[in-house]
Amino acid sequence: MNLFNKVKESIKKYNLLAKGDKVIVSVSGGPDSLTLLHILWRLQSDFNLGLHVFHLDHMFRGEESKADAEYVAEFSEELGIPVTIKEYDVPGYIKKRGLSKQAAARKIRYELCTELANKVQADKIAIGQHADDQAETVLMNFLRGSGLEGLGGIEPIRDEMFIRPLLEVWRSDIEDYCQEYNFRPRIDSSNLKPIYRRNKIRLELLPYLADEFNGSIKENLNRMANILRVENSFLNEYTIEKYKKIVVSYDKDELLLDLGSLSNLELAIRRRVIRQAIGDFCGGKRDYYFHHVKQIEELITDGETGKRLQLPEGLRIERSYNALRFFWQGTNSLKSHRFVQVYSIPGQYKVEELGIKVDLEIIPKDDNWQEKLRNSNELYLDYELIGNEFKIRNRRDGDRFQPLGMKGNKKIKDFLIDEKVPRRMRDQIPILSTVSDEIFAVGKLRINDKFKITDYTERILTLDINKAEEGGSN
C-alpha cells in the first residue's frame, strides 16, 4: 500500500476528518509537513476540506528561518492555499521562562496555531508527526520512567482537534514521497546533530538497539504504544467516573475533593484521580510529576488536618477535616458563592442561591407540541435524554455546550457575551445539567442542541424558570 492510501486508511480508522472540516496545517517546510499538506490538498475534494497553512518563524536561525518562511509561503501559494506566517522571539521567551529550546518552541507553536484556529473557526489542526516520531517519543518516555500515558506515546487525535494523519507511516516513506513529487524540503541542520535528547535517541540509541538487539525495535515500540493507549483510555474513562463523584465544588480559584471517598479508592485509581484533579484545576499536568502525586497521596493518607503542600506554579493543596482543597497562592478563604444541587424530575423548586423558582413537568409528545412550544415561555427538551434527576449550579470556567441550532460547542462565557448578558449577572444564570454533568440548558436563554425534541422523542420535559418573587410556572 502506498503512502497516500496508508494515510487515507489512518484518517478513516481514527475518524480524523469529517466532511466540510476546516483544517489548519502546521507546516515547518520540512519533509513531514510538506507531505502532510500535499496529501490533505489531494484529499480536499474527498472531504470538502478548507485548508489554511500556519508557519512559525521561531527566530532561532536568522536568515535560514526567514528562508523557511518564504519557502512555505511559496509552496502554499502554488497549491492555492491561504497561509499565515508568524514570527516569535522564542530565544527571548526561553530566557524568561527557563524552558528547553524544543519545549518552548512547541508551546508557542501550539498556542499560536490554536489562536489562528479560533480566529478562522477551524475544526482541526493537522500536525506532521509520523511513526518514527512515535518510536522516539515512546522510548524517550520510557527512559523518563513514564506511566501508561507516556508509554502510549502520541495520540492520532487529541482533544477532538489536533490530528496526526501521518502517525502510521515511516520517515523513509515520506522521503520517497517528496522525491516522487520533486519537493525541495527545508532541512533544519540542528536536527542532524546529537545535541538534544530526542536527536540522540534518533541518531544514536535507536540505531544501536536495532543493530544489537532487535531490528524491528521501531515497529515494536509503535505496536506497544497502540496497545497501551487503548488500555489507558479505558482507565481514564473509569477514573473520570470516580473523579466526578468525589468533586465537592470546583471553580478557577478552588477545587474541593471529598477526602473520605478519595481515601477509599484503590491506590492506582487514587493516583489517577489526583492527576485528573491537577489537570482540571491547573489546565494541564506538564509541570507536575510523579513525586508531586506521591506528596499529595501522603497528604491524603497520613497528613494532619490543616497541613498544606506548596507545589510549582503557586499551586497549594490543603487537607481539611473532610476535604482535600486545591487552590492558588494568595487565595485565603473557602469560596462560598459556588454551589451545585441535585433535584428530581418532575417537581417545583426554589433555588435560594440564585433567587429563582424552577418548574419541571413531563408531558407526552403529541401532534400539537410545536404549536404549544410557540405559545409558551417554557423550554421543551427530550426527557429520556435527561432522566429523573438533574443538577442546578452556577457557571464554572471552561463550561461548554452546543447551543440549539449550532454545529459545534461554545464556551458559555462567550455565549453569555454574545447574548449581551451584563457581566455582573452572568454568575446568576442557572446552569442545568444531567447528573453526569452534561449541560442541557443555560437558564432560559438556550437549550443544548443535543437535547432538542426529535422524531424519536417520546416524552417532553417542560422547563420554566422565574424569579422567586414572581412565583412558579406561568
TrEMBL record:
EC number: 6.3.4.19
GO annotation, cellular component aspect: cytoplasm
UniProt keyword terms in alphabetical order: ATP-binding, Cytoplasm, Ligase, Nucleotide-binding, tRNA processing
Binding site for ATP: 28-33
InterPro entries the record matches: Lysidine-tRNA-synth_C, Rossmann-like_a/b/a_fold, TilS/TtcA_N, tRNA_Ile_lys_synt, tRNA_Ile_lys_synt_N, tRNA_Ile_lys_synt_subst-bd
Cellular location(s): Cytoplasm
Protein name from the UniProt record: tRNA(Ile)-lysidine synthase
Organism: Selenihalanaerobacter shriftii
